[in-house]
Structure formats: C-alpha cells, structure tokens
Amino acid sequence: MSRKIGQKIWIGGTCPIRQVLDRFGDKWSILIIELLSHEGKLRFSEIAHTIGDISQKMLTVTLRSLESDGLVIRQFFPEIPPRVEYELSELGKSLVPHIQQLAAWGQTNMDTILENRKRFEEKQQSRTAY
Amino acid sequence: MSRKIGQKIWIGGTCPIRQVLDRFGDKWSILIIELLSHEGKLRFSEIAHTIGDISQKMLTVTLRSLESDGLVIRQFFPEIPPRVEYELSELGKSLVPHIQQLAAWGQTNMDTILENRKRFEEKQQSRTAY
DNA sequence: CTGCATCCCGAGTGATACTG
DNA sequence: CAGTATCACTCGGGATGCAG
After folding, report:
1. What is the pLDDT of residue B89?
2. What is the pTM of this model?
3. Sign of the C-alpha dihedral, residues A45, B125, A95, A110?
4. Which of A56, A82, B50, B60 is in the most buried spot, having the most CB atoms within 10 Å?
5. Partner residue facing A91 (CB), from B20, B99, B109
6. Within 7 A of a protein CB, which nucleotides of strand C?
C-alpha cells in the first residue's frame, strides 16, 4: 500500500513525484534527453540547431545541470576550434522509455484534450452571454 | 521510424513531447492527477489539505484547467454551504500508469542523482580553489 | 465552503555582447 | 565553436480580500 497520506508523502521533498517534477519540470531537460536518445552523440551546436528555438544560454545551463546529475556525459576536445560532444549516460538512457511512454500517450490523446478545451471555452462564453 | 528530424518534429507544437510538456509541465497538474488516482473522489478542501502547500488560487486554476481538458470531472452540489467533488475521467485515468512509471523511476534513481550532483559541485569548488 | 479578482514578487528565461 | 557575463523582462504563482 502506498496510501500513507497521513504520513505526508504528499508534502515536501519525500514525495517521489515532486522529486521528479522538481528535476525534470523545467522547459528543456526532457526534450534534450529525448533528442540525445535518438541521435546518440551530438555536438553543442547540433543540439542547438535541431531544437531550433533554444537560446545558447539555456542550452548551456540545461546541459550543465544534466551533466552534474550524471544523466548526460560531456566530452571535451581541446582542439582549435574546440569541440564538445554530449551523450546519454546509462542513467539517462534508463529514463528514456518512460519519456517515450508519455510522448506516445500525448500523441494518442492530445487531440482529444484540445477538442475538450475548445468546447469548454465555448460553453463558458455562452454562459456569460446571458 | 520516428527519426524525421529534418522535418522539424523538434520545433513547434508538432513534437508530441512538447505538447505533453506544455500541458503537464506546470507545478501542480501531475500531482493532483496522481492524488485523485489514489483517493478516487475528493472535495476541494480535501485536495488542498492533503497537498498541504498549494495556494487556493493555484488549486482553483489547476483544477479548472484539468476540467477544461477533460482530464478531471467536476461535480457541483448547490447546497449551503456548497460542495464540489473532483474525480479523474477515463482520459485522466489513462495517464496515471505513465505517471507512476516516472515516480517509480524517481524513487529508484533520485538518490543517485543527488549524489552525482553533490560530487559535481565539490569537483567544481576544488577547481576554483586554485 | 468554494471560487474569483487583484496586486505583486522573483525565479526562470531570453537578448546581447564578450572571451579563449 | 563553445561557452561566460550581464541586463532586462515575462509570467507563474503566492498573498490577500471579496462574493455566492
């Protein structure tokens, strides 16, 4: 049983969902992990270019945080010009299937959600129309 | 094959991961869904109390958005004082297993992540110490 | 009890310029 | 090429007060 609600698993950092949300709830982490899972090993500029609308700063920050948590491996080549390659660690790879489950769910159900939302808005409008 | 990166699945709203992130990347949606999946049917104040540190405003806003997207069913009882009950729709329930997968992953690996992060910080400090 | 409106702060994010 | 540094801003979300 995981019903220990009286013991406050819903409050604070002990709740596993909160931990996951805390770590991956930002704008880019999940997306970068998923991208690396497809492409294997990528350079900084390749990631930036593929995602398209991420700023250099946010890419740096996000990659650094992923590296610090051991989800991504960073390999630096001190050449001229410098080259850096990123790839998923085993830990990072172990997260990928779960992300893809979510993505698949989204692909199946997001249309329904958007329809629901649209109808809900219309219903609200007709209500205030009185 | 889902490798159509040249076709820009990574840019804009077409990427399923972005859609999911867009919808569920906020602070409370996932947590509320998971809570309702445990408890079945809850009143507004019960949710507020169980979560503990959510403001009334954010609970209202989040529940309203979940309702609008058809993930949660809202039942209003026009009594005095009023009573409102929330429960997951079928659509909402269909998301639960995926959330629990993520939570389980977190429970297994979050300790490792936090250790990694700690060691990374220490390594950075010793570097700037020179 | 439940929910809406208003005000407001600050973390997270982006734009820009600079460095090795 | 791959960052770092700085500034500016948006906007998520918290506090408070009011209403049905």
Report:
1. 98
2. 0.89
3. negative
4. B50
5. B109
6. 1-6, 12-17, 20
